[in-house]
Amino acid sequence: MSRTLVLLRHAKAEPEGDLGDALRPLAAKGRKQAGKLGPRLAEVTGAVDLALVSTALRTTETFKLVSQHLSVREHRVSEELYKAGPRQLLGMLREVDADAATVLVVGHEPTMSGLAYLLHDTRDDLAQQVSLGIPTAAACVIDVTTPWAELDRSTAHLSQLVRPQD
User: What are the residues whose beta carbons fall under 8 Å from the beta carbon of 13, sequence distance 6 or more?
Assistant: First the structure.
């Protein structure tokens, strides 16, 4: 069974204000980015079996806008994901149900690019680009050939970086 992992950095957020980082909403530009990214992701991924979403306001808002264009079977909002680094997120993904074909993660930098780089099996131009970080509203689409429980360093292939169309 082939699997797809999509690591999506949230869209552009407002600067941190008095309410703190977790409550930063999307900026107007971010709402526009997420709205344009949804149809692009739908073309690339089709249906999503599971979406894991950070508890931060900017990630839940990004997911809400993007998922208007996706068929999402199940989603979970996770405080653990808000605080996770690449290795912690990898551990969460290893616990995903074996029947899930497509998993979308809506999270933060540098975790999204760090995990994409860690999983990628080739050190090519795309790996180099992702190693420097990914912009807001960018999604790393990763082909996973192993069961989720066996996901590890260099066991998947970063096939593309999807961004909103201008």
Answer: 24, 25, 26, 27, 30, 58, 136
